[in-house]
Amino acid sequence: MTRRTSPATRRGWMARLSCCLLLWLWAPMVLAQTFEFAPPPTVEDAATPAAMRDLAVRLLPVYQDPDIQRYLATLSMLQLVAGNDQAAADTRQSLQQRRRHIDAGHDPGTGRRVDLYASARSIAVREQRPYADALAQAFRDTAAALSDQQAYQFGVSLRASAAPLRDPVQRAFEHARSQRNSLTQAEALELIRAYLAYEAQRSFTVHVAPLIAEDDAKRYRVDAALTIPVGGKRTLQAYLLRPRDAGAERRVATLLEFTVGPGAIEAARASAAHGYAGLMVTARDSAVSTAGKSLRPMPFQTEDDDARAVMRWVARQTWSDGRVGITGSGYGAVSAWMTARKPPPQLAAIAISDPMVPGVNFPMEGRVMNSSALRWLSDFARGGPDPAADTAWAAVDRAWFRSGKPYTALERQARVDSAAWRTWLTHPSFDRYWQNRLPTARQFAQLAVPVLNISGYYADAGIGAGWLFEQHRRQRPQAEHRWLIGPYTDAAQPEPVLRGLAIDAAALIDTRELRLQWFDHVLGKAPLPTMLRDAVNVQLAGANQWRHANSVDALSSSRMRLHLVPPEPGRERGALRGAAPAVERSHEQRIALADRRDAPLPPPPALLTRQIDAASALVYVSDPLAQPTDVAGRIAGMLDFTINRMDVDLSLALYELSASGDYLLINDPYEWRASYAADPRHRRLLQAGVRQQLPFRSEALSVRRIAVGSRLVLVVGVIRRADRPTNYGSARDVKEVAASDMRSPMKIRWYSSSYVDLPLIR
Predict the structure, then answer these.
(1) Model-level pTM?
(2) Which of the four, 42, 236, 399, 418, has the lowest number of CB atoms within 10 Å?
(3) What is the 3-state secondary structure (H, E, C) of 237-255?
(4) Do 277 and 240 form a contact (C-beta atoms < 8 A)?
């Protein structure tokens, strides 16, 4: 039977079609409109809500969009900012219904937060209730419809800091001022979106923590004050979160993490949301009372014994299926590797990020001690870092530097008493003390447990991740060990803007979620995530791509050799050239290491800057590149020089200098002690006054696409910092030498036969 439409229905469709055609023709003219907007001085100004409300009220009558979903989403935001709370809630409901009708699998993401905000505002107005009460009701209604994983991700987004959302609003204010207090419609709409996101997030972070805890209690069994026996009368404090249905009828695997101090429960929540028992254990001697300033703990001594005891305890629980995966970042990550020396039968998998590997990248890098390790010991003993102490610790470093005293005096300058620090200072080489805390070659060869290793180019612990990966794969080529590296800092948590640099969209993955997906794979619940398709998985920064290879060496197919040509007379900068000059050139550098009048304590360098710090360093610049150049791997090379001392601490940093004059730091400077360059286990002194060659190989990865027209900039310098020991070049132990012992300047003559080899992807 043929279905007929009534004349009225046909007229209705024709009217809608005509409106759509008119809207299509009219939209460009509407978007070209400008709106007066006199922005308050700051986002927090008392006049801001009224100014934004006025702008939204004027936008409402003229805003149109042929995309109905986008129209409804933006309309609801305008209504919220304009104060039409009930209308906004109705619009959001229409949008939700349409999304369910069009795409049943649609996850609104940010839209879910706007839905919550609109619902809470509507309840508050309609029922004359305080916003906090209305938000609680709206949250409970929303959470009731979410799965455990959805609720967890929702909670993460609601607890996130609102601070990063402030900057786009402030920038829009400044842009309006620069345009004589006017905005185009597109700019005005973007400001409305940014302002609403900031306001909503501010309201969430104040109120949601107890609501999320309440929801957790409905979904999981929580034991926030668990004690686990680990032998004798010793117990460890722990926090356990597991699915409510986990028990004798349904046993689950456990994800274990050792932490410094109480309160680090986010990982346990994530584990439980994915169907695991999340167990957070406070490390031994962490968060204990200390007598005066004495620091009792001696890290890297008992972590493996404690972990094995905890795993045995887990295996006896009625809710446990006997399998344990160890996870964690920094200190928690190295606990996993200490346990892996003699893996217990319960250990099923290891997934870590930026491991703190004793003797490799902590408490030193390249055999150069980092003074922050003393602060870490203090934080460890007191249950976690205190950001308020940053200024005090910086003052300690500066005071020690200006004193000119040996490095052993730093502990007294800080007014602490740490047996661990004194022990570490007596082991500057990678000797048995450090080796005994890590798997031996034989233990690496026998380790069949699957491993996931995540790290960042700009992370303090990135070097440790690479060392563990290569040791494991060298001793056990068939090892199921995957390494993922991106433009991240500590804990490998992506940030859209990192130290001033906008990060590629491809790099903005949820690394915690990826870790859990990998556990799902190795524990038999899901396929392997495609992001981890090979052994080495790197984000090629600047290209918005990921690259995958079976090894670090396989990332690159060739190397580009660049000679370090010293500067010509009267010039400050040298050159990077594909060949050494026909006539050898040299340049003498003098460094007054004994001059302690200043106290250089540089902050982490900005990744994008207009000027670089070249103190106590030489700068070498290449010609503009004629084609895009992909660097991926470890920088190596050879330094040809004559020095008047028997040792020196060096640093090397590689930058991209864009055609516009911006310097982009490709990875944090690599630091190393010359006397340990050939063998980290044994010190081999330089020959004072004799020309010599020093081969080197960076332990850090450099991965970036260098754009056409950019130049490569290499900064090679002598380390002279208040937060590092000063290597005056004596044959004596570096920590024992004072400024008064070596008053004459260090002199280094650099020769043009020096070079670097950059690993390239062709």
Answers:
(1) 0.87
(2) 42
(3) EEEEEEECCCCCCCCEEEE
(4) yes
> What are φ and ψ of residue 713, in 5° steps?
-125, 125
**How does DSSP assign 278-342, residue by residue?**
EEEEEPTTTT---STTEE----SSSHHHHHHHHHHHHHTSTTEEEEEEEEEEEHHHHHHHHHTTS
Place of tokens 């612990």: 461
Nearest-angstrom CA–CA distance, 119 and 128: 13
**Average pLDDT value for the chain:** 90
674: how many CB neighbours lie within 10 A of its CB?
27
Q: Classify residue 674 by its DSSP letter.
A: G
DSSP 377: H
| Encoded amino acid at 373, one letter | A
Measured in Å, how far apart are the chain's first and last C-alpha atoms? 65
CA atoms within 13 A on the CB side of 221: 12
Helix ranges restricted to H, 385-477: 390-403, 410-413, 419-425, 432-435, 441-446, 462-475
How far is residue 507's CA from residue 267's CA, in Å, rounded to a whole number?
A: 21
Q: What is the mean pLDDT of residues 575-584?
A: 95
Give the whole-angstrom CA distance, residue 611 versus residue 606: 10
Crossing angle (nearest 10°) for helices 185-219 and 131-144: 70
Peptide bond into 363 cis (omega under 30): yes
Q: What is the average per-residue pLDDT within 689-703?
A: 96
Whole-angstrom distance, CA of residue 386 vs CA of residue 375: 10
pLDDT higher at 32 or 220? 220
Give 569-585 as a DSSP string.
Answer: TT-S-EEEESS--SS--
Residue 200 is predicted with a pLDDT of: 95
At 285, the pLDDT band (50, 70, 90 cuts) reads: low
Q: How far apart are CA 352 and CA 421, in angstroms?
A: 26
**Contact in structure between 247 and 271 (CB atoms under 8 Å):** no
3-class secondary-structure state, position 124: helix
- pLDDT above 70 coverage of the chain, percent: 92
What number of CA atoms fall less than 13 Å from residue 542's CA on the CB side?
22
* Whether 608 contacts 500, CB under 8 Å: yes
Q: Are 535 and 549 in contact (CB under 8 A)?
A: yes
How far is the CA of 81 from the CAs of 341, 447, 620, in angstroms?
58, 58, 53
Distance between CA atoms of 211 and 194, rounded to whole angstroms?
25
Question: What counts of helices (H) and strands (E) characterise the chain?
Answer: 21, 33
- Distance CA(620)–CA(587), nearest Å, equals 12
DSSP notation for 192-209 = HHHHHHHHHHHHHHHHHH
| pLDDT over 70 at 281, yes or no | yes
DSSP-based three-state secondary structure for 499: coil
Burial state string for 105-144 with b = 16 or more CB within 10 A and e = fewer than 16: eeeeeebbbbbbbbbbbbbbbeeeeebeebbbebbeebbe
Write out pLDDT tens, residues 127-152: 999 999 999 999 999 999 999 999 99
Q: Which residues contact 234 (CB under 8 A, 6 or more apart)?
A: 284
Give the phi and the psi of residue 151 in degrees, each rounded to 5. -65, -40
CA distance 315 to 674: 49
Mark 715-725 as b/e (b = at least 16 C-beta within 10 Å).
bbbbbbbbbbb
CA distance 399 to 688: 31
Under 8 Å between Cβ of 448 and 478: no
Dig out the tokens for 607 from the structure: 């990744």
Closest CA to 619 of 653, 579, 664: 653
Residue 747 corresponds to which tokens in the numbers above?
A: 């002199």
Q: What is the CA radius of gyration of the chain?
A: 30
In this structure, which amino acid lies at residue 395? A
- Scanning 103-224, the segments in alpha helix (DSSP H) are 110-126, 131-144, 148-159, 163-178, 185-219
Residue pair 336/325 in contact (Cβ under 8 Å)? The answer is no
